[in-house]
Amino acid sequence: MSKIGKVAVIGAGVMGAGIAAQVANAGVEVLLLDRPGEGEDRSSIARDAVARLLKTDPAPLMHKRKMKLITPGNTEDDVDKLAECDWIIEAIIENIEIKQKLYHHLEKHRKSGSVVSSNTSTLRRSDLIEGMPEKFCRDFLITHFFNPPRYMRLLELVGGKETPEALLEKVSSFCDRSLGKGVVVCRDTPGFIGNRIGIFWLQCAVVEAMDRGISIEVADAVIGRPFGIPKTGVFALLDMVGLDLMPHVLGSMAKHLSPEDDFHKVYREPELIKKMIAQGYTGRKGKGGFYRLRPDSPDKVKEAINLVTGEYSEASRPRVGVVKKAGTKNPRKVLQDTSDAGCYAWAVMSRTLAYAASLVPEVTEDIAAIDEAMKSGYNWKYGPFELMDQIGTAWLVHNLEVDGQKVPPVLKQAEEHGFYRVRYGTRELLSMQGSYRKLLQRPGVLKLEDVKARGGPVDSNPSASLWDLGDGVMGLEFHSKMNSLNLWSLSMMQRAIPQIIASDYKALVVYNDGSNFSVGANIGLLMVAAKLRAFPFIDYMVRKGQDTYQALKFAPFPVVSAPSGMALGGACELLLHSDAVQAHAETYTGLVEVGVGIIPGWGGCKEILCRWATSTDGPQGPMPPVAQAFEQIGLAKVAKSAEEAREMKILRKTDGITMNRERVLADAKEKALELAEGYVAPEPLDIVLPGPSGRVALDLAVSGFHQSGKATAHDVVVSAALAEVLSGGETDMTRTVSEATLLELERKAFHKLCRHPDTIRRVNHMLKTGKPLRN
Amino acid sequence: MVDIVLAGYARSPFHFANKGALARVRPDDLVAQVIRGLVHKTGVAGKDIEAVFMGCAFPEGEQGLNIARLAVFLADLPQSVGGATVNHFCGSSMQAIHMAAGAIAMGAGQAYICAGIESMTRVPMMGYNPLLNPALAKSFPPAFISMGETAENVADKYGMSRADQDAFSLQSHKKAAKAQSEGRFKEEIVTITGPDGAVIEQDGCIRAESTIEGLGSLSPAFREGGCVTAGSSSPLTDGASVVLVCTADYAKQNSLPVLAKIRSIAVAGCAPEIMGIGPVAATKKAVERAGISIKDLDVIELNEAFASQALACMSDLDLDPAKINIDGGAIALGHPLGATGARITGKAAQLLKREGGRFALATQCIGGGQGIATVLEAAE
Known about the structure:
The complex is a heterodimer.
Chain A: E1 6-10, H1 14-25, E2 29-34, H2 44-53, E3 70-74, E4 87-90, H3 96-107, E5 115-118, H4 125-128, H5 134-139, E6 140-145, E7 154-158, H6 165-178, E8 182-185, H7 194-212, H8 216-223, H9 235-241, H10 245-256, H11 263-266, H12 271-278, E9 291-293, E10 302-305, E11 312-314, H13 321-326, H14 331-336, H15 340-358, H16 367-378, H17 384-391, H18 393-402, H19 409-413, E12 420-423, E13 426-430, E14 436-438, H20 448-454, E15 459-460, E16 464-468, E17 473-478, H21 487-502, E18 507-510, H22 523-531, H23 535-553, E19 559-561, E20 565-568, H24 570-577, E21 580-584, E22 587-590, H25 604-613, H26 623-634, H27 642-647, E23 656-658, H28 664-676, E24 686-687, H29 692-707, H30 713-726, E25 737-738, H31 739-753, H32 757-769
Parallel strand pairs in A: 1-2, 1-4, 2-3, 4-5, 5-6, 7-8, 17-18, 18-19, 19-21, 20-22, 21-23
Antiparallel strand pairs in A: 6-7, 9-10, 10-11, 12-13, 13-14, 15-16, 16-17, 24-25
Helix pairs in contact in A: 1-2, 7-15, 7-16, 8-15, 15-17, 21-23, 22-32, 23-31, 25-26, 26-30, 29-30, 30-31
Chain B: E1 4-11, E2 15-16, H1 27-42, E3 51-55, H2 67-74, E4 82-86, H3 92-105, E5 111-119, H4 134-139, H5 147-158, H6 162-181, E6 192-193, E7 199-200, H7 212-216, E8 237-247, H8 248-253, E9 260-269, H9 278-290, E10 297-302, H10 307-317, H11 330-333, H12 337-355, E11 359-366, E12 370-378
Parallel strand pairs in B: 3-4, 3-5, 10-11
Antiparallel strand pairs in B: 1-8, 1-9, 2-8, 5-8, 6-7, 9-12, 11-12
């Protein structure tokens, strides 16, 4: 079956435009159509939607350049263009009659073998194809994206008995590899999987909080962190989704679910919420929702609604004892707790988990698919079945029985051994037949947790471990808090080198399963050292980082870094020293050190300077690379995607970008093995820099920014130190500057800055508030 | 002494750098099109031209490699025509006119094309490789002072209020917008064809809808708490301008449309930190050399690098506002550094002929602390 080379999206609303943007992010041409506008430009609706993509936050496009791949049009004048499309995605209003009218229109114009799918979230496929021609039914799927399509991993895919396997595979593969989605194949049931469970959970949490007099702040605290659920919990999440959407979704569920479904037990439309919607309190997009910023208040005071009185007052930061005690690894502790908050958590989570278990096999036979849906669609860290394993299935079954709740058969089956287990180095999961089967990953997917199941690490310390990834590739994992880099992390990098050489490994891949590759060097450590005036220790840390990264750069084997999420500061420097990077498309990276009053000291200045100096695009001469690096580091620029990182030269043209998070490790390993063939370590670079003449020009520019109020007094100090490094110190353009000299300049600048009281203030402020101090 | 005249003036439309219609046009192609336009308009014979003198403030990148000579080739002038690039920052192309006049006075030829070019899109201000003398930067920092800061200094020194600057800037836009709507620029603008075939025939920087409230709402651009804004500064601009400088006899023999006679020229230095005041000393010299007084001037083109410096010069020289920049100035039209001198000199000559009167002045300030001035006299 032919590949998907061109896509059409019909319906240029938030979802349609967002889906079109993600298709463009994948580098695929996409036609975005909406109904004809009334003015002279008949494609104005779609054209305006495309223009809005550049203004939307978070950005739907990974790079503004991608916009060129989206062609706006209208469903009358441009309908012929549908004949060029391999996949047509309908994302219009949730109305069967209107959708079917559109489908009949499409049928006349689409090419044979093309796929048509609906992005419906509430309608069933069987209802949408009723009375439609056989050919259409065969080619029709539901592809349910979550909002915003770029950032939410889940894609629910629904076919029917008439759907050819190859067609389902074609769309599934495209969504997985090109769009980077976690594809979950669902049965054709209301709300599919994500919303079926998610809506039950949210509704249960709202009515239980109302009935039990639990404040929304406490509800969000107790339902969030202990269960690996984002800190938005329930009420802040509803504010994000939009309160006005809920009656529609709830009504649809109530209408389509069987009368026996437990959903009906939690279904009701509270008067308070009706009133809030009527008054424009629809959530973040409106005047506020359960939370709001105090109106006419310049200091942005956050307020929370009282579920009983409907009055707003300043939001509290509830200190729920059990939440603290439970931490992030012991959800059972919260469920056992007899406080009001604990009882509330039990009421919500026990029913939600039991509900999820009761849906097997109605929505799917695959419990891993349900876990994937909740992790990808609702950003839960653990799926419901993984959570039940953590809580203890036997304990849960017992307590559900004590509570008088039904125990679904699949949970009963898991009572003894849980839903997942590891046997002989392989992860297994419970099947419908009550036996366990191997949890097989799709080809091209490698998870560190599967590697871990095979056995212990090759080497390990509290912040990092080495794993055998197979095929002669060693893996380096960071696992400190936020994967920040410290002496242990550096030591493990250094220890990896002799072990790789001695054991004939071919390559090293730096990767972890965390949501962030690494937030960079641990500045808390810097703060402590500075407070103790342990400056020699700071100098040692800088030196150790430099030595480690240089050792990796010139090691006799290739090093491939595979980031996803944040790779900031010291972590960005690691990417720069790697032979190659295989980045997840959602990689956010940059040299951000100036935010805390320092400069990159582990070779980051040197490497980014060399990248620009050896670049052949753009103007030549001693200053352009210096100016580029100066702007990038001096403004602490962060790439908001791997594509942007490539433009900033943190990624090279030869580095790879993987759209699907789950494929990053396998792709990185493949890249490492490719590089290992005949690998020769790079030669150290010598570059021409302008010396003091260039430094003066940079200083002059910063002085202008300072005078105009765009740069603070300490910005001037930090920039001057940065200018000294990037211009090459006292060099002259007739000479070359070695890597060693640049590293020495970095050390000197760092040495000076970390002793500066304003730098200490910046570090302190960042640690306390998470925000940079503009001093 | 031989009479030297301006016998033709043309320019490209002026557009904002980076976002304007000329952003994708190479500067050498741009100025060559204007030279071709001037040659066509005046009917001057290429073989008679001694050289092209081309003013450019940052002659590197696409403006490098002696762009004047390259423009000779691009404009299809005979290879016998010489080409020299002149850098006198903002005064570059007025300097080119002065050099041509001097050369003609020396008997070195009878006709020169004096041009100016600046693509501030394609060659940034300061150039690609700003490499400053560290010793001078230390011993005499004003040598490298930023232009915005000088504008603030002048405003301080002369007590130019924010309101005065905004009002002056608004007037510049209103005058330019009126001139544009009445088609008064058609005579001087050469239509430019872009690399994609786009036809560019109108100025792009003029804001006819500008209001005093709008200008008043802008934040200071160069100094925290300062009074100079983007609205009271000339914008970064792409553009080219060209004049034909020749002897009066040559113009007569060849029936060239004489605009004005060059009566006197001058340059003068001043303190770099108030470079905007440069036109004062230069004008005084030029007027004295012309043997006239300021009151004798009927038309004045005073470049508006910033409203503050233009107002300060007007105040110091006691200039009549009604005679200044009749069709708008650089705040509205734009200031493509190297091209401005030829524009204001050509424009002063054109206005002298159009408006009537005997003497005209074109003058401008120059970064580093200088002024340059040209006094023109109506042709007989």
